[in-house]
Design brief:
Length: 112
């Protein structure tokens, strides 16, 4: 045998990340400004650990709770909800719908 093996087969010899991957990952993490929960039945916004959130987890399990993220637009730097933003893998950035509308969707998805 030439390399280390696992129950699933041969492992890769190199498991290090390329230098270009690390800043990209950090830039996505920096775009997330916060998160909260939204109940679609009550039309309620609460944070993890709030008494209302605990009540929904214990007694109101039939209510639909959504986790929402607050994202910072990389172009205009405004904070928007994740439903109002889109991620471009080519740019590795989140943009708000206003900026995408200003520039155009095809230009948003290009690497320039």
């Amino acid at each position: 045998m030439t390399g280390p093996t696992s129950p699933c087969g041969t492992l890769r010899e190199s498991t290090t990340l390329e230098k270009s991957e690390v800043p990209d990952f950090r830039s996505r993490e920096l775009a997330i400004a916060g998160n909260f929960f939204f109940c679609e039945v009550c039309n309620l916004v609460c944070e993890y650990g709030d008494p209302l959130w605990n009540e929904h987890q214990s007694q109101l399990k039939f209510h639909k709770m959504k986790r929402m993220f607050l994202l910072r637009c990389s172009r205009c730097k405004k904070v928007v909800v994740d439903a109002y933003a889109e991620y471009s893998p080519e740019r590795n950035q989140f943009w708000c719908k206003n900026c995408i509308g200003d520039v155009g969707y095809l230009k948003f998805r290009s690497a320039e």
